[in-house]
Amino acid sequence: MHSFTYCVPTQIVFGGESLEKLPELLKERNIARVLLVCGGQSAKKSGLLDRVEGLLQAADVEFDILSGVQPNPRLSLAREGVKKALALSAQLILAVGGGSVIDTAKAVAHGAANPDVDIWEFWVKRAELKRSMPVGAILTIPAAGSETSDSAVLTNDELGLKRGLNTPLNRPAFAILDPALAATLPEHQAACGVTDIMMHTLDRYFNPVCDNEITDAIAEALLRVVIKNGAPVVRDRGDLHAMSEIMWCGSLSHNGLTGLGGNKDFAVHQLGHAVSEKFDIYHGDSLSCVWGSWARYVCPANPARFAQYAHNVWGVQAADDETAARQGIEQTEAYFASLGMPISLGQTRCGVQDEAGLQELAARCSFQKTRAIGTFRKLDFDDMLRIYHMANKE
Ligand code: NZQ
Ligand code: ZN
């Protein structure tokens, strides 16, 4: 194993009835005032919001609500949340939802703890985040892993930019994970979630350091479990066994565990962010539509690594590394397709692009040619453009 530091302080309460532990989790932390953050309508429609409000009222916790968080959450709503949190003197920001809601809660927490700094300054690294306030998460969709991750992603709706912020201060204080809360998910959201969970480990697995045996074994096992339970969960979101496996995998896949000791790559995430920044498509769609193209492009840098993945995750037996690698990539793409996920730009809402459109995506991804991405193989503007070209089919 190579060197690493690892600290995930988030208290996890997992399983049926875990929502009932909310008052206890707040009491342990002496929390009397909470800003509740939620999405467009699903939590209201399912009755979850009423349940949470009831628990807060019964525990004499004062609260206000910030609702209307959209997928690819907007900076403007987070700024509104900061005002609400300050007006309430909130002591904790409670997210009821998925990655978009939890990331908004994280942004509100950072803003409320630093009222003199506009939150976007932290996202573009013009200000250093030194303090925040606690966030709690009640997860309704296994996907982004924000409930334990050190990351938060915001879209600046004035500038049209999607950016991530990584800091230990992004780790929530607690996360309530009840698989039953995800049973109301639409089929495609479940598929997007399964894809994103796989991608958080794939984006760590494919890195230049290949001799972290236990990290590799954990990553490969996680991928096998997600692949096994992904299809059942997409078919039937009420399959609580499959959903419970997927939900726990979602948290483990993005809390750092599956990449310890390695130098994570995350190029696919960056390629995808440029697509969802421009077209506002779901995060999962933005990943599956470029993964195969990225994999074929970078594979020659280390075919043996792709062969290891093909063998240990997909059970591929082949005479040589190149053949095994190709089969592993094909099986991964076929799996995404079987979940109804797009595997090309043309299969997403953005459609097949002309040359100017592809150039714009590469410009966005390279921050106007000022950065390279990836570690498995470093990618500059020209590489990004070639990958988008490869993904640009029906
Ligand atoms: O808004 P509502 O009505 O709640 O509907 C949501 C939303 O439309 C719906 N949904 C969620 N739970 C549901 C439900 N519908 C019915 N029943 C339920 N139980 O699902 C839709 C998507 O929600 P969202 O929160 O956007 O999904 P996800 O968890 O995939 O989050 C995606 C966002 O997280 C970011 C992505 O870039 C994207 O902005 N990411 C955050 C990360 C992090 N903080 O660590 C890492 C990821 O790589 C990712 O970048
Ligand atoms: Zn992701």
Features:
394 residues; alpha/beta; six-stranded parallel beta sheet; two-stranded antiparallel sheet; 15 helices; 8 strands; 49% helix; globular; binds 5,6-dihydroxy-NADP; binds zinc ion
Helix content: 40-55%
Our measurement of the CA-to-CA distance between the termini, rounded to an integer number of angstroms, reads 43 Å
What is the H/E order?
A: EHEHHEHEHHEEEEHHHHHHHHH
Ligands in the model, by name, code or SMILES, are: 5,6-dihydroxy-NADP, zinc ion
List segments where confidence is low: pLDDT < 50 over at least 5 consecutive residues: none
Largest sheet: 6 strands, parallel
Mean pLDDT: 98
Structural class: alpha/beta
For the secondary structure, the number of strands is 8
Shape: globular
Q: Helical stretch count?
A: 15
What's the assembly state of these chains? single chain
Computed Rg:
20 Å
Strand content: 5-15%
The side-by-side strand order for the widest beta sheet comes to: 1-8-5-4-2-3
